[in-house]
Specification:
Helices cover about 45% and strands about 15% of the residues. It is globular. The structure holds nicotinamide-adenine-dinucleotide.
């Protein structure tokens, strides 16, 4: 007989990063009954996150999907902080910038103030999960938990296991995802995991058509949407954020040995340099 697995009990979720993804993940956790700590080094991003949650929940009130009291309770279950000392929780879900050293440093600081039961999860789109966890102390409690944008709506969560992640932790993350009303898929720690590896071509081929064949990006979006895709590649890049999408392209390209078919696009680099990052800055391929 195998011993029954002990699952870690999760009541408090700390979401680090209050940008596009962190804000959505925090809202999703609040709406599903968790106590949430939303942390960001930039207080302006915390204000923006709170406003975006209020706005999004108000829309649900107007559609009579939740009551006004529920809206207030959800907002009140989130504490917004720019102090790392407040980030003590049963699980940390990190959603800060796509930069390995920023993520490593953050996890090292968080590991010092949390206990030996806390689970550490990264929402990275493309960085090797094992390499973010460079400290061995919490390696068995470290995994990827990759949400999709917008995190309040998209159902899929990729749960990424490293060679060191314990099965208890994977099982806990699967259950947690279900409690968040998501559909978890467990996958291995490989460049781009599943979705970002397969979908890379959706962006890169479209960018190449603009760069090399002088196609109109609007026409490409229209045709892809008419053929059944929910969003054309350029609208999707604007939604994701040009900086994030460009970083992911570079990381996947380098991790796979720089194959020509996955070479990042100069058009996207120029957009990043010009700070035309998409919806979050008001201009990307489109204006908002
Ligand atoms: N945008 C997407 O569609 C998408 C989808 C899935 C996963 N991701 C991943 O999620 C992560 C966040 O992406 P995003 O689009 O939300 O980025 P974003 O640029 O919208 O937000 C990043 C936030 O991190 C904060 N931050 C930076 N350093 C920090 C630190 N040391 N501690 C706390 N906060 C810090 C910034 O102030 C900012 O608010 C990235 O790893 C990205 O690859 C993004």
């Amino acid at each position: 007989m195998f011993a029954k697995k002990t699952l870690h009990s999760i009541h408090t979720i700390c979401v680090c990063g209050a940008g596009t993804m962190g804000s959505g993940i925090a809202q999703c956790a609040a709406q599903n009954g968790f106590t949430v700590i939303q942390f960001d080094v930039n207080p302006a991003m915390l204000d923006k996150s709170r406003a975006s949650m209020e706005n999004s929940l108000q829309k649900l009130v107007e559609k009579q999907k939740i009551s006004g009291e529920e809206k207030t309770a959800f907002i009140n279950s989130v504490s917004f902080t720019s102090q790392i000392r407040d980030c003590k929780a049963d699980i940390i879900i990190e959603a800060v910038v796509e930069n390995i050293s920023v993520k490593q440093q953050l996890f090292d600081e968080l590991s010092l103030i949390n206990n030996d039961k806390t689970i550490f999860a990264t929402n990275t789109s493309s960085i090797s999960v094992s390499s973010i966890c460079h400290e061995r102390i919490y390696a068995s409690r470290f995994a990827g938990m990759h949400f999709f944008n917008p995190a309040t709506i998209m159902k899929l969560v990729e749960i990424i296991r490293t060679e060191k992640t314990s099965e208890d932790v994977i099982e806990t993350l699967v259950q947690l995802s279900k409690q968040l009303n998501k559909t978890p898929v467990v996958c291995n720690d490989a460049p781009g995991f599943i979705v970002n590896r397969v979908a890379r071509h959706y962006y890169l081929e479209a960018l190449q058509m603009v760069e090399k064949n002088n196609e109109d990006f609007r026409a490409i979006d229209e045709i892809m949407e008419a053929s059944g895709f929910k969003m054309g590649p350029f609208k999707l890049m604007d939604l994701i954020g040009m900086d994030i999408n460009y970083s992911v392209s570079n990381i996947v390209w380098e991790a796979l040995g720089k194959p020509g078919r996955l070479k990042p696009s100069v058009i996207q680099k120029n957009k990043v340099d010009a700070k035309e990052l998409g919806k979050k800055t008001g201009k990307g391929f489109y204006e908002y």
